[in-house]
């Protein structure tokens, strides 16, 4: 029997409709039946349903005779650390990462923090959960609360030498998630000045669910970096296993470029080591790894695949463009804390700003950013792309379809969970070619026939940005600043939609006139570029894997 909240890599669902305390109890029973653990570590993130789900799971485990060490409120990586370093047979974190507030879920790991995903036991746990066969031990498991955080902090500090750090000013947006308490403990050991935003853990999410991948969630961090003249900005998701970077000018740095920087930092201490990367965007990472004397190896996207490949290759670091960064010394797991510590070390050591470290890479390998397209038949769309865009290219099927030419490459892959295709394109030093190929690929994927946009599908966010569902007429490109150049293609169609979304209060013409850094509105007045950007930001509601 299929249970809706069991996904490919973890458990995630709406509370209580898809995941409730009763189901959590039976998941505990099923885990005990499948893996027969002696002792497990359990924790939960800031979500309000976390403590109750955690206690129900613990009850299921203890009834089956499993001893439980309860860490309580913690980040995902603290469970990884516990599973790798304590005398336990695995661990679980109750979290739904960046999903909406009324969701929750579980990430399960075995001893050594090895992930339990679809083919490594999660399907078995689903089957046993559905069967609901009681497992009652003669002796119930024991229960103890623990706090392994001081050892975890000590471990994190091994990745840098605190006395070597410059006294950098850092804006740290904890998103009311799990990052705040960890940051407080690290701060005592570091010569850094932190300006903390949304620092208190709060499952009510007073500032929205923390997901810095969404452009509309970045403004607070970016503005604080500029106003405080900080050296860099950091933002985390709710369970703080992903860290996002802003340079000293408040610009968001795509995760792809951070993979290359972190690979360099790791290789400076581990010459000749292997680096694992995902297939979506690759050229920048491969070039930097080679320059640093390392060996770049491509793996299928997804934490279970990256971790497995890292173990096979004994790779020292693995990075995904989705801001998951994995470290051999951290049990091959992803961490949202190690990356920023290493980047602070890199900035201090080089004496260069984050923007100056990144700028040459943006120029060398401009990217489209990940563009999601809702399609009725993903396989047919991939077949169309393959027929039209692969002649003379080098094909790779590590994850979806990657096609590489001398001057540009692209990857197109299906979502694991929805009828969506994800496209990534990159070029060598050529934004015009990038734009041309991205638009052509999107046209083929979406079979553009010029249908008009339906105004009622546009929604407006509280901060003034527009959310427009993926429509064939809008080849929106996020990331490298080429988005404004293609507004013209959508302007006529969107004029009426924008007017409707604003209910006539302010009718912005979509690029009715665009000149340099100014835009023209219906009243004939010129608006500064910042105003224009805020009003006309389109973002896809679908993000991440």
From TrEMBL:
Keywords: Isomerase, Magnesium, Metal-binding, Phosphoprotein. Its cofactor is Mg(2+). One of its GO terms (biological process) is carbohydrate metabolic process. Its EC number is 5.4.2.8. Residues 474-536 form the Isopropylmalate dehydrogenase-like domain. PROSITE patterns: PGM_PMM. This is Phosphomannomutase.
